[in-house]
TrEMBL record:
<protein>
    <submittedName>
        <fullName>LacI family DNA-binding transcriptional regulator</fullName>
    </submittedName>
</protein>
<keyword id="KW-0805">Transcription regulation</keyword>
<dbReference type="Pfam" id="PF13377">
    <property type="entry name" value="Peripla_BP_3"/>
</dbReference>
<keyword id="KW-0804">Transcription</keyword>
<dbReference type="InterPro" id="IPR010982">
    <property type="entry name" value="Lambda_DNA-bd_dom_sf"/>
</dbReference>
<dbReference type="InterPro" id="IPR000843">
    <property type="entry name" value="HTH_LacI"/>
</dbReference>
<dbReference type="InterPro" id="IPR046335">
    <property type="entry name" value="LacI/GalR-like_sensor"/>
</dbReference>
<dbReference type="Pfam" id="PF00356">
    <property type="entry name" value="LacI"/>
</dbReference>
<dbReference type="GO" id="GO:0003677">
    <property type="term" value="F:DNA binding"/>
</dbReference>
<keyword id="KW-0238">DNA-binding</keyword>
<dbReference type="InterPro" id="IPR028082">
    <property type="entry name" value="Peripla_BP_I"/>
</dbReference>
<feature type="domain" description="HTH lacI-type">
    <location>
        <begin position="11"/>
        <end position="65"/>
    </location>
</feature>
Amino acid sequence: MNAEPERHKRATVIDVARAAGVSRQTVTRAMNDMDGISAATRQRVLDVAKELRYRPSRFGRGLVVGHRPALGLVTEGLTNPYFPELADGVVEAATAAGWNVLVTDGSHDGGDPRRFLREVADQVDAVIGYFRIGPDAFDDVFGDLPVVVLEGTAEDGHRGVVEIDFAPGLDAGIEHLLETGRRRIVMIDSRSAAAPSRRTAAFRAAMERHGLDPLVVFEGDSGGDAAGAVARALREAPDVDAFMTFNDLHAFAVLKAVQHAGLEVPDRCAVLGIDGLAMGVVSSPELSSLDLDIAAVGRIAVELAIGMQTGALPSSGPEVHRVVRHTLLLRESA
């Protein structure tokens, strides 16, 4: 079977009908599990649809009539203030383009991310966010739906990608800490030693570029044990004079734990987060961070998703790969 549509063009019901050797009406019946066709014909149509990554239009199925197209945003936990800031940028950009936004929380997928994501995909015309599945599952879960992965990499084989390059921000942060007399810098990762984050890999590389020993302490699979992580760091390196953290949310907890351990911030020990959340100004002292333009991340992702949906951009490849970098945001904690 060789019925692959053009790379810039989404498969249509006509493409499926032609490849399966049936009428458009038969494709509609098969895709909507309607009567009037044999089980063998239905399966042949479904197989062809899967091969072509065909996904019936929500409009064609009558699920939405006369409404604006919808964009799905999948987050990893709306209690993390990063995601409301991201959602705000996504909604602003999508609304300006005439799209509605469905915001979902993937941390409540019930242990079945494929089913959760299929349910999201059935309600939208494109989807962006953080997905707990690998790119090898995208065809099965999303079909030909435009997909933009946040914090992915081109090497992952994803479709659209907004990659976060941590290296420049980490270099700037470490250089600042060195310039202010810090010599024993420790990274606290919210993940486990068995599965460290990409941020830890970037931290280790940046420290090695500066000729420093990259000590990393892990909070565990679920994070949330900042006090224990700080205590372990102080046991391993009593002379620690700066902490970098997985993100700002963890930095707030580390900041509190460091102060409870009797270390004055920033005089005795600096604390530097990652993300540059607006709420960093309400901590005491105010949190210094590697600042990410979160609204720009949302805006870029929306532009990619809409471009892929309209056919202005391909469904994968370098044309739908963007890179965003951090800048150093100095407040009071470093």
